[in-house]
Specification:
With about 190 residues, the chain is mostly helical. The protein folds into 2 domains: about 1-60, Arc Repressor Mutant, subunit A, CATH 1.10.10; about 70-189, Tetracycline Repressor, domain 2 (Orthogonal Bundle). The protein is built from 10 helices and no strands. The longest helix is centred in the N-terminal third of the chain and has 25 residues, at about 1-25.
Length: about 190
């Protein structure tokens, strides 16, 4: 059983690299298996194929994400947790960015009521987000701030003089993100 767990983990790690680099459509099962050092039939055995493997990566992320939004956590802490994941797991962030770019043509087909906005509406009602701010745009801006270091790595170095992977950059990025997010709050009267 231990070998099965190691094999599954190796396949998930290899698939993350391949999907982040080539996208869901471009990643090849044979390349994933070769990177993991296993027979490609094991992808079907453990995951039911490439799509199942991709879904398993997302499920692993969703399990991690579910632990983020604890009761009483401030919005700046929540944003900071997403930033830390992006800084510490750049392949995961690259996978999501690639997925968003690949799906850009289907924007209208994927429109939903965005259930993740409910938490921001509650935060707005409590004063953590000013009334004149639209929670949908707050969410978009937060997402942009969290991925900026991945999308604009060269600019991050050029503007800050620090390498994105350095502890100094990461500390400063988190500090600045928190300060910006706290400014979303309703002004005290």
């Amino acid at each position: 059983m231990r070998d099965a767990e190691r094999t599954r983990a190796a396949l998930l790690d290899a698939a993350l690299v391949e999907f982040a680099a080539k996208g869901r459509a471009g990643a090849r099962v044979s390349d994933i298996a070769e990177r993991a050092g296993v027979n490609k039939q094991l992808i079907s055995y453990y995951f039911g194929g490439k799509d199942g493997l991709y879904d398993a990566i997302l499920e692993r992320w969703y399990a991690e994400e579910d632990r983020f939004d604890e009761p009483g956590i401030t919005l700046d802490e929540l944003a900071s947790r997403y930033l830390r994941v992006g800084l510490n797991q750049p392949l995961l962030q690259q996978l999501f960015i690639r997925e968003l770019l690949d799906d850009a043509a289907d924007d209208a087909a994927h429109a939903t009521d965005a259930p993740e906005l409910a938490g921001l509406h509650a935060r707005q009602a409590s004063g953590e987000i000013a009334e004149d701010l639209d929670p949908a745009f707050v969410l978009l801006m937060l997402q942009g701030m969290v991925v900026a270091h991945s999308l604009f790595r060269r600019d991050a170095v050029r503007f800050t003089g620090m390498h994105v992977d350095s502890p100094e950059y990461q500390r400063r990025a988190e500090e600045q993100l928190r300060a910006i997010v706290r400014r979303f709050a309703a002004p005290e009267t």
